[in-house]
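P.,

For your records, the input lines for the assembly:
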Amino acid sequence: MPRVAILKFPGTNCDEDVHHVLRNVIGIESSIVWYKDFVLKDWDAIIIPGGFSYGDWLRAGAIAARTNAVEELGNARSSGVPVLGICNGFQILVEAGLLPGALLLNESSKFVCRWVRTRVENPKGPWLSLVSDGQTLDMPIAHAEGRYYIDNESYSVLVKTSPIIRYLPGFNLNGSLYDIAGIATEDGMILGLMPHPERASEDFLAPRGFKTGGRIIFESIAHSLKRGW
Amino acid sequence: MSTHLIEVIITNKKGVRDPEGETIHKHLILRRGYSMVSRVRTGKYLLLEVNAENAEEAVKIVKELCEKLRIYNPVVHDIELRVHA
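Structure tokens returned:
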């Protein structure tokens, strides 16, 4: 049975939600792992959940990105372990340089908590294995520092090679460049996104007019770990 | 009249704890072995472009507006004004 680590830092607060979805909705084994106890080789996949690691001091994700646990994730690429960063987890991956670009303060300078509609382009890799190209996924966002920034040169590479999750028109509430809500490495092994798939995995949590777009990401990893991708 | 760049640096007063600075110090700098760093204080930086007769007058204007508009909170903050080089 594959095992998923849910990496917890001081200030992480979505770990229980992710744990609940993996265990009770998807039926896959997972554990919440304190960052000091994290050993890469013990796990088949790693999720960095949302929250406010180290109080968002300096920049959101900047301090967690310099812990041994996250530096070890740099080795996850070579050892073929899938990594997912949700919200603050995405911020950590970007700060660690495992994903390109940066996440800046929202254009409104305010914390935004709303359901949004996104579309997946060029799905690849273990986290998007069940997602079809152009599929829309509804999920809520909840962040103050989610305005994705990338320089033109890096973007022109990214758009040709990597999976991209974009906010659909009217749902780019933070001012992200190119409406980017999430990105992955070229092989899709490392995925980061600002919306919260764990809050969009059960029907009773979706407001009227929205579907549970997050569940397919967890279904994908469960499927991928059993059957490959 | 000419344009002067005036910097405003706002920090917590000596006796007021600065959790952001403490976190950066303890969890980032010391953890990564820079034990020669004994303290970190954070603050806020503003750069104001001021039309004034000279730099001295520009500083005076900025000092006044910082106090009048409560750009900083004198109960807990110190400010430092500098002419931008």
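Two observations worth noting. Chain A touches chain B through eight residues (CB under 8 Å). The radius of gyration of chain A is 16 Å.

Regards
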